Amino acid sequence: MKKIMISMALFLCVGSIMGQQDKAALKLAQKEAKAQMTEAQKISEAIKAKIDAKTATDDEIMSECKKGQALIRKAIKSGTIADNKVGEAYRISADLALYPHNVMLNKAIQKEPFDTAFFYSNLKVMTSALQSEIKNTKITKGEAGNENYIKGKIFNLAQCGDYYIYAAQFNTECQQYEKALDAFETAINYSKIYPEVEGKANLRLPAEQLAYYAFHMAHDAKMYDKMDELYEQALQYADGATATKQVKISAYLERGDSVAWANNVREMTIKEPQGNDDYIQMLIGYYLKKDKAAGKDSNQMVQYIDEVLAVDPNILIARYGKAYRLFDLEKYDEAFAEYLKCTEIKSDYYDAWYQCGLCKYRQALALNATVSSIKNQAEAKKTLEKTKSIFGEAIPYFEKARECAPDEPQKWAFELRQCYSVTGQAAKAAEMDKLL
């Protein structure tokens, strides 16, 4: 029992000593923080006096303020500043950030070189200090109160939103993309980050335009995840919406993700087929390649085209693509109907008229190839007459193609000569011969 009592006594004694040591350490830390704060204040007042007297050089402002900032930062980080002095500490920090900020901003206006990295880090210190000063300063009203002073600080904080736009531009020019993106996102979300300025921060550019610039900068930096995050907001900037869509889609190919590329192009072109002919054509080519690799039973291309045409039946490239695939599959009647619809959309479309004729021409050739195998002469003769009739049906379409490209007989004269020869129109066949 005595041993237990002695142990407890020793424990209490040690605890008492440790408590005294902690108090002593705290007092020392408080004293040191107070001294740092006082010295930082002296530096701030001295440099301001020189600035007001116009005797301070830019280098002096920068070096002195950095020295003062180091001191006040230590004091704040110590956590030992008295509660009623915290707001004052942040005021000193904000002032020591403001003076070099003005120096660098003036250099930017004069197009003189300056430390863009420090501009940004100093700006973050300044806005954080302003916010903390506002939060940690008790507002007092009346003639001797500080209400108007705090309103002024809120106004200063609101103005700083535009400086983040400048920081984003500076960092982009220096290819400091991570910092530039961080600055853009701060500007975009400025009132959320600094709710004290809600309704007061009127940035010179709207959030959607900033998102547009940030999106394209992220693309230049190959920061694809950030592009995805910014896309929807960037798309709201109407003047750049088309470019934003194009860049997003091309980025999938840059990443080597052709499946995602195809899915996004499909979604975009089905939603808005008008004005997206180039993308429709690219995706038709993509699906055509996949269909040919998979065999005749694959019809991804036609399924996609039908989705586009369901939204707008007059998308010429889609209509022609469908006709092309049907022709390739030797479904000549279906292909002919699609090519004919193309001519209804564009009456002077040479390729569509030519392909209409070629559908008939190929049908005639295929039927003609069966004649020699038919043993019944009457049936063979009937088939031969049917062949000639189909060759004749092709002529008007090849002639329409001729009207569309009269100076390029190499495009249509051969087929016309064959059709005229088979149908017994020797003079016209000879005319085509001369053109070849």
Protein described:
The structure is a single chain. 78% of the residues lie in helices and 0% in strands. It is an all-alpha fold and 436 residues long. Among the domains are: 21-204; 330-436, Serine Threonine Protein Phosphatase 5, Tetratricopeptide repeat (Alpha Horseshoe), CATH 1.25.40. The N and C termini lie far apart (125 Å). The radius of gyration is 40 Å and the shape is rod-shaped. The chain has 19 helices and no strands. It has helices at residues 2-52, 58-78, 86-109, 116-135, 147-173, 177-188, 190-193, 207-220, 224-235, 241-254, 258-271, 277-294, 300-311, 316-328, 332-345, 350-371, 377-404, 413-422, 426-435.
Provide keyphrases for this structure.
Serine Threonine Protein Phosphatase 5, Tetratricopeptide repeat; mainly alpha; 19 helices
Sheet having the most strands: none
Question: Could you report the average pLDDT, rounded to the nearest whole number?
Answer: 92
The poorly predicted ranges are none
Please tally the β strands and state the result: 0
Strand content: under 5%
**Helix count, DSSP H or I runs of 4 or more residues:** 19
Termini separation (Å)? 125 Å
Shape: rod-shaped
> What structural class should be given to the helix and strand makeup?
mainly alpha
Question: Rounded to an integer, what's the Rg over CA atoms?
Answer: 40 Å
Percent in helix = over 70%
Q: Would you list the SSEs in sequence order as H and E?
A: HHHHHHHHHHHHHHHHHHH
